[in-house]
Amino acid sequence: MADKNNNQNNNKMSYEEAGRKGGEKTAKNHDKEFYQEIGEKGGKANRDNNN
Asked: In this predicted structure, what is the pLDDT of residue 10?
């Protein structure tokens, strides 16, 4: 399906496909601790913005 969309858009990647590929690449390069850290940072930022 993604390949079909690429061919119709002059071989340009859709935002959906770019996001998926970027997420897969990030998951390969980082471990569980990376995701825990960014989740913690997001939680702190959210808490600080709501107080």
From this structure: 79
Per-residue HEC secondary structure of the chain comes to CHHHHHHHCCCCCCHHHHHHHHHHHHHHHCCHHHHHHHHHHHHHHHHHHHC
Within a 10 A sphere around the Cβ of 4, how many other Cβ atoms? 8
Whether pTM exceeds 0.85: no
The 10s digit of each residue's pLDDT in 12-25 is 999 999 999 999 99
CB burial of residue 17 (10 Å; 0-12, 13-18, 19+)? middle
- Answer yes or no: are the C-beta atoms of 6 and 12 closer than 8 Å: yes
